[in-house]
Design a protein that fits this description.
Layout: H1 12-15, E1 26-31, H2 44-56, E2 59-64, E3 67-68, H3 78-94, E4 100-103, E5 106-108, H4 113-118, E6 131-135, H5 145-152, E7 157-161, H6 167-171, H7 176-181, E8 185-189, H8 190-193, H9 199-210, E9 214-218, H10 231-242, H11 244-259
Parallel strand pairs: 1-2, 2-4, 3-5, 5-6, 6-7, 7-8, 8-9
Helix pairs in contact: 10-11
Length: 276
C-alpha cells in the first residue's frame, strides 16, 4: 500500500528490476556511491571506482543511499538523487562495470518524515515506496515505536541502519523486540561482522545475527579504502556460522525483497544450534 498522496516513482520502468530479471551477485541496500553529493565519492571517477570495487566484491545490484535530513541536506533531495543515479548508471554502462544502481536514501530520524515522504522530498529504498532506511541519532536514544506504527499504517516499514554501531541503541537493546514486532528490520554492516569497526560493533552485530533479529547485511561503503565493501568476507563468515542458505538470505534474498518491495521480511529465525 502506498502512502496517500505519495507519488509512485517506484514502477518497474524506473528501477528496471523484477524478481525474474534481477542481476546476479549480492544485493547491497546501503551504499554511498553517488559522486559529490554527501560523504561518499568526491567525483564521478571515484564513484566509478567504488562501483568497480562493489562488482569485484560480488555485488550486482546496489541502492545508492546518500544521507538525507542531516549532512548535505540541500544536495540530497529526492530528484537530485534520481538524476545522479541515472548519470552514474550511464557511466557504468560506458565503462562496462556490471553493477546496477537504484535510488534511495539514508534518512536521519526527523519528526517531518511522513510529510516529507508524502511530498516526494525523501526517498524510500529502491524508490519502491515500501521501506525507508532510517539512521538513528548517534548520541541519544529515541524510542521510534510511534513512528514505526505511524509509517506502517501508511504501508511503509523502516529498516534501521547499522544498529550495531549505535551506542545509545545498544544500551537499550531490549527495546528492539518491540520495534521488530512493529515492522522494523535491522541492517547490520558487513564490515562490522568482519571486525573492522572494532570489538564492540562486531559483538553487537553477531548478537543480532545469531539471535535472529538482523535480517539484512549491507556494505555502507563510502570509498575503496577503509570504508570499502566487504560483502564476500561477511558472507563467508555467515556461511561458517549459520550455513550457506542463511548467508544467502542475509546478503541476497532479504535485500532483494527490499528492492522489489516485498511487504514484509522475516522477523527472526532460529540460531545456529537449531539450523539444520
Amino acid at each position: 500500500m502506498m502512502m496517500q498522496g505519495t507519488p509512485n516513482h517506484s514502477a518497474k520502468a524506473r528501477s528496471g528490476i523484477s524478481p525474474k530479471d534481477v542481476p546476479s551477485g549480492y544485493v547491497d541496500i546501503h551504499c554511498h556511491c553517488l559522486p559529490n553529493i554527501d560523504d561518499g565519492p568526491a567525483s564521478m571517477g571515484q564513484a566509478v571506482a567504488l562501483c568497480a570495487a562493489l562488482a569485484d566484491d560480488g555485488i550486482g545490484l546496489v541502492i545508492a543511499t546518500p544521507h538525507q535530513l542531516v549532512r548535505c541536506e540541500a544536495r540530497t533531495c529526492a530528484q537530485v538523487i534520481r538524476t545522479a543515479v541515472d548519470e552514474l548508471n550511464q557511466k557504468l554502462a560506458e565503462e562496462s562495470i556490471d553493477v546496477t544502481v537504484l535510488p534511495g536514501g539514508e534518512v536521519r530520524l526527523d519528526e517531518r518524515i511522513e510529510t516529507l515522504l508524502a511530498n516526494d522530498e525523501i526517498l524510500t529504498l529502491a524508490d519502491r515506496g515500501r521501506h525507508i532506511l532510517l539512521e538513528l541519532p548517534p548520541d541519544v536514544f529515541v524510542d521510534i515505536e510511534p513512528l514505526l506504527l505511524q509509517m506502517r499504517s501508511r504501508g511503509v516499514d523502516l529498516v534501521i541502519a547499522h544498529p550495531e554501531r549505535n551506542a545509545p541503541l545498544i544500551a537499550h537493546s531490549q527495546i528492539l523486540r518491540r520495534w521488530l514486532n512493529c515492522g522494523a528490520s535491522l541492517q547490520v554492516t558487513a564490515a562490522s561482522l568482519a571486525g573492522y569497526f572494532g570489538a564492540a560493533a562486531e559483538r553487537a552485530a553477531w548478537d543480532m545475527v545469531l539471535g535472529g533479529w538482523a535480517t539484512i547485511v549491507a556494505t555502507d561503503a563510502h570509498d575503496t579504502g577503509l570504508n570499502g565493501p566487504c560483502m564476500t568476507i561477511a558472507s563467508r563468515l555467515l556461511a561458517d556460522a549459520l550455513g550457506p542458505s542463511m548467508a544467502r538470505r542475509l546478503c541476497f534474498e532479504n535485500p532483494l525483497g527490499i528492492v522489489v518491495g516485498t511487504e514484509s521480511l522475516p522477523l527472526r529465525w532460529p540460531g545456529k544450534q537449531e539450523v539444520g
